[in-house]
Specification:
single chain, 128 residues, alpha+beta, 20% helix, 28% strand
């Protein structure tokens, strides 16, 4: 559970727009600096090959964080393992990093599921 909370915090940091100058947290939100170990490779092809070979995982969701960075979620057929990746690229290099990986110990469907009927609010503004 700590790993999930940590990964969520890391992902939230990546999702913050680069152009946002005001980094003041909303009331009740605290910032924590933590040290974690992540695994990175120089290409998406290499990371996909490793996840496919070791866990039989394939991409199931993807999104852009900004013009050069993106996130990916991979899972295996039974959703007994899943991973969250961050891909960052610039003119000189690309780096694809595994920031979270989960294993449900063989219980199908526990590491990844989609909400089949999301209920979105009527408001059009993004807010926390």
């Amino acid at each position: 559970m700590k790993a999930l909370a940590l990964a969520t915090g890391l992902m939230a940091g990546f999702f913050m727009p680069a152009y946002a100058e005001d980094r003041t947290a909303p009331p009740g939100v605290t910032m924590h600096s933590v040290q974690i170990q992540i695994y990175c490779v120089p290409t998406m092809q290499r990371m996909m090959g490793l996840l496919l070979e070791k866990f039989s995982e394939v991409p199931v969701a993807m999104g852009m964080l900004n013009q050069t960075d993106s996130w990916l979620i991979t899972t295996n057929r039974d959703a007994t393992t899943s991973s969250i990746l961050i891909a960052k690229r610039n003119k000189e290099e690309t780096s694809v990093c595994l920031v979270w990986s989960g294993d449900s110990q063989g219980v199908p469907g526990l590491t990844f599921s989609l909400n089949p009927s999301p209920q979105f609010p009527e408001q059009k503004e993004f807010g926390i």
